[in-house]
Every structure is written in C-alpha cells, then in structure tokens.
Amino acid sequence: MRFKILSLFPEIVEGFFKSSIMAKAVDKGLIEYEILNIRDYAYDKHKKCDDYPFGGGAGMVLKAEPLAEALDSINAKNKTVVFPTPSGVKYTQKMAESLAKESEIVLICGRYEGIDQRIIDEYVDHEVSIGDYVISSGEISSLVVIDSIYRLCDGVITKESLQEESFQGKYLEYPHYTRPAEFRGLKVPDILMSGNHEAIEKWRNKKRYEKTLNNRPDLLED
Ligand code: ADE
C-alpha cells in the first residue's frame, strides 16, 4: 500500500509514519508514503495557499491552484483520492476494508473553512467524516483514515488480532487484563486465571454483549 498525503503541515504527518507499528511496516516495505507540502506548489512569491471565500463569510479557503498542481504532479486523477471533511459521508470500518484493497491512496489534508469546491469536483473520490465533531487539523483526520487502512494490509498486524477486534463483528471488545494479577487491591477476574478456555470464551462473549448494550446499543438494533 502506498499513501500520498498533501498537507500544509507535513511534520504532523511525518511523525506518524516514523513511529510504532507504522514505522515497522514502512521498514519492512509493506507501506510506502510520500508527503507533498502544498506550499511547494503555490505560484506566487509569498507561497499563498489560502484566500477569502467568494460570497463572504468567516474563515479562509484553501486555494485551488496549489492543490491542483500538487495533485497533478502525482497523476491523482487516475488514483483513489480521499478528502476527510466534516461534510463527508460517515467513515466506517467497511470503508477502511474497501480502501485497504487499493494499491495507492491519495489524501488531502484540509485546513481553514475548507478547500475550493472545484478540487473536490475534479479530483476527490471519497469525502469522509471521521465523526460528528469538527477538528481544525485535516492532518489528524487523514491520519485516522490512514491508520484504519494500513493495519488491515497483509503482514502489518496478525490476522488473529484483526479477527478479534471490535466492529469487525457486531459486538465491542471484552475487557483486557495483564500482569500484575492484583493492582491496588483490584483483582483480575478469577475466570481468566482458571485455564478453562471454554469458560473464558463464554465469559468474554458475555462481557462483549454487556459492553455493547451499555455503550453502543445502536449496534444491536437489528
Ligand atoms: N476535518 C475537520 N473535522 C473533520 C471530521 N469530523 N471528519 C473529517 N475531517 C475533518
């Protein structure tokens, strides 16, 4: 999987690719990435990337020209382009699974009030929202999308971990414990120390159901 990320703040994105599981996946050649600094594609001497919105209103808009230049430099019209935005469709695990089948994904990190609509019309395949809230940094929403995708790519994490995860099935995860067996007087449930795998499985399923009922009853609706 190859990610190409267009950003005004490449340092935010770079840190993610240089850390933890992603860094290992990059080292192993499972993931490739390129970060394009949108400012490098601005024409004028001040490298201006934003401007006032036509028709008035608060905030600034990311200009079309530098974005288009950056996108053309990577032949983005022939690639899958994702633009995370609060006005996108709700981003889901299903979409992550579908995007993980691509060989290359381009992400546009928005800023300010948004980006010029003509870029969305001409280049963007998926406008996605990571939730019903607004964050300032398109880098963060792009990284959420990237994280959800790269971990599904072959060899990045074990198949077993993926299978067990919340949202892969209909229920949330069961509670996890690790050593010590007692922490500040709080004991790990006896069943987990019993060695009885069948009973443990049953207990975990019960906990998964309870957690889902409490935290996300909507998942149980049908
Ligand atoms: N950028 C700002 N808020 C966002 C959201 N909720 N989803 C995706 N991108 C965003």
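^ adenine complex. The beta strands are 2-7, 32-37, 50-51, 61-62, 80-90, 104-108, 114-115, 126-129, 182-183, 186-187. The chain has a mean pLDDT of 95.
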